[in-house]
TrEMBL record:
Organism listed in the record: Candidatus Aquicultor secundus
Keyword match Coiled coil: no
Protein name according to UniProt: Radical SAM core domain-containing protein
GO molecular function: 4 iron, 4 sulfur cluster binding; catalytic activity; metal ion binding
Domain (Radical SAM core) ranges: 6-223
Swiss-Prot/TrEMBL cofactor(s): [4Fe-4S] cluster
Entry keyword set: 4Fe-4S, Iron, Iron-sulfur, Metal-binding, S-adenosyl-L-methionine
PANTHER family per the UniProt record, alphabetical: PQQA PEPTIDE CYCLASE, RADICAL SAM DOMAIN PROTEIN
Pfam annotation, one family: SPASM
Length: 354
């Protein structure tokens, strides 16, 4: 599961609730009220529309079921999992969870799913105090216990870390911990100052710090065979543009959509600009009529270094990071450390002068 190409696969990040039992400092949520949350019968309608689109496009589907915290809707979550398991067009799904609400019985039920690929949990540091300062008292021990519970049930576990100024140096030691706990994969997200995270925007990486972090993670991922380090993120191609397992183009407008708790469609969860509602207009109207998506698809619309970069087909920068730092999702990724060559820079100057 999960080895399909960009042309073969379409990805949906599906937030079935905005409710959550945690209040992490860097969270992209602005509200946890989950107003308009869809009932289970409506979730089934959403799934039917997903399957319809995949069938028309002749693509296989992948999903991430998340929130908020998806296990606050435990019964609906497991009923949805049972329905997904019967789908002919969805290849696999992941669950993105904080892990603190998973019981031994839940882990056994997850193990029975035919299409669950992995469960993703979050840790911000190998040091309990530093992790808990971001995610809440006692979170570190709860996540470690969740990892062990899931592994005892032969489930694949991934750890996601949101990188800030405070934890950017913790990655090697964190990977030591994850190796000891038999975690399968590790990935990072750059901290984007949005939602609740606006209160700690001073912790966002500088360009130089982002460069340092990406180089270090690439070095670890390539040279060590302990935990599989996933590097499918924009900017990783700046470290190694010739390795197809390093780097990925921003998925906005290419092969992904985000579905929110009330059916609202976003280009990406970290770019929360509504482009439709799946239950009101379906998927096709948003996908084919959104001016936002078309403006990003046309790479000549991108500004700054991104507008004339030869690596756009394998990167395109993070549109959400550009949006929250500059107010313009077409601007260059503010963390990009690539220096444009002379001809590229001249082409950009001429383009802007028109």
């Amino acid at each position: 599961m999960g080895d399909n190409s960009l042309e073969q696969e379409f990805y949906f990040q599906w937030h079935i609730t905005e409710r959550c039992n945690l209040r992490c400092q860097h969270c992209y949520h602005e509200s946890y009220k989950s107003t308009g949350e869809l009932e289970f019968t409506q979730l089934k309608e959403v799934l039917a529309k997903i399957e319809q689109a995949l069938t028309v496009w002749q693509k296989v589907g992948s999903l991430s079921l998340t929130g908020g915290e998806p296990f606050v809707r435990k019964d609906d979550l497991f009923n949805l999992i049972d329905t997904i398991d019967e789908s002919d067009v969805i290849d696999y799904f992941d669950i993105l969870t904080n892990g603190t609400l998973i019981s031994p019985e839940d882990a056994k039920r997850l193990q029975q799913s035919r299409k669950l690929r992995r469960v993703q949990l979050s840790l911000e540091s190998p040091h309990a105090g530093k992790n808990d300062a971001t995610r809440g008292d006692g979170n570190f021990n709860k996540v470690i216990n969740a990892i062990r519970l899931l592994k005892q049930n032969d489930l694949e576990v991934s750890i996601m870390t949101t990188i800030t100024k405070e934890n950017k140096s913790d990655i090697p030691t964190l990977l030591d911990l994850l190796t000891a706990e038999h975690v399968d994969t590790f990935a990072i997200e750059r901290f984007i100052p949005e939602g609740s995270g606006l209160t700690i925007k001073n912790l966002a990486l500088s360009k130089e710090e982002a460069h340092e972090v990406f180089e270090k993670i690439h070095e670890i991922g390539i040279n060590e065979d302990r935990v599989r380090v996933l590097m499918y993120r924009p900017l990783f191609c700046l470290v190694d543009k010739d390795d197809p397992t390093v780097g990925a183009m921003c998925s906005v407008g290419t092969n992904a959509l985000t579905i929110m708790h009330d059916g609202t469609l976003y280009p990406c969860r970290r770019l929360p600009i509504a482009i439709g509602n799946i239950l009101q207009e379906g998927i096709f109207k948003a996908w084919y009529d959104s001016d936002l998506l078309w403006s990003i698809r046309q790479s000549s619309n991108l500004k700054g270094k991104c507008g004339s970069c030869e690596l756009v087909p394998i990167c395109r920068g993070c549109r959400a990071m550009a949006y929250y730092v500059t107010g313009d999702y077409l601007e260059e990724d503010p963390h990009c450390w690539k220096q444009p060559n002379q001809s590229t820079a001249l082409a950009q100057i001429l383009r802007c002068a028109r």
